[in-house]
Amino acid sequence: MAKTPSDIARGVLEIERDALTRLATDLPVAFDDVVALLLQVRGRVIVSGMGKSGHVAGKIAATLASTGTPAQLVHPGEASHGDLGMITREDAVMLISNSGETRELADMIGHCARFSVPLIAVTKRTESSLAKAADHVLILPDAPEACAIGMAPTTSTTLTMALGDALAVALMDHRGFDRDSYLAFHPGGTLGAQLLRVAAVMHTGDDLPVVAPDTPMGDTLVEMTAKGFGVAAVRDRGQLVGIITDGDLRRNLNDLMDKTAGDVATRAPLVTTPDTLLVEALGIMNSTKRTVLLVVDDMCVLQGLVHIHDALRAGVV
Description:
Elements: H1 5-25, H2 31-40, E1 45-49, H3 52-66, E2 71-73, H4 76-79, E3 92-96, H5 106-115, E4 119-123, H6 129-133, E5 136-139, H7 155-175, H8 179-185, H9 189-195, E6 210-211, H10 217-227, E7 232-236, E8 239-244, H11 246-251, H12 261-264, E9 266-267, E10 271-272, H13 278-288, E11 292-296, E12 302-307, H14 308-313
Parallel strand pairs: 1-2, 1-3, 3-4, 4-5, 6-7, 10-11
Antiparallel strand pairs: 7-8, 8-9, 11-12
Helix pairs in contact: 1-7, 2-7, 3-7
């Protein structure tokens, strides 16, 4: 009986899974040396390959660059027509070729030898021309391709991409590349939004609805209305001592105008800090059914206010 598409898909994934397990179990012996080399590179990591290896090289270069290791893709064909000038003595070159005999890489190999540029080979064949020319060789497992004819780059490209991810993450760890570093390289889109902190969007200064404990409620209502957040922060000698919300107004409706802000305020309000991730602040607001959080420092000094709409506008979902 003929295989169904699902049967074929499972077979492909099982072949690639087994190959990845082999790679994890028998990591290339030069891996640590390559990481040490790339940590010392003062320029960039130049990544290149031909065909499908070139596409993988582009992904590896992009991942390295976005995680703290300056990197650039150079096409081997373009390199032979002038782009070799992009490769300097301060760089390291990583060439990807499953066979290790990709003739389009010859000029880049020669350039590295001529100018003493460190060369890293990613290949399956230890006796290949590329492996012999390289300073460090990352040998991929000799695993079968996952296609029916055993020739289309499938398993080999998956292994190479995974090895590139492993290098990038190892370099991240040794560089101390943290959330703030990641945000610096990913200011846009969902990734950047998830790493924004409250300080980046909070309202401050004259935008804040602030009253003193002895402020009459008539004046307090004017302040709440003028600032448009539906709340007022009650501050005494710089420190936050309470908050007035619509709920507090309703609970004191009968004799509201005879009271002061301190009489009506909810003491010890729920707050956040400027360094809190905006996504975490949004989670607090959602779980407590609030639209506003006041922002304080370690001494409970009022720093700002964040509204749920601020998080949504920033792209946090």
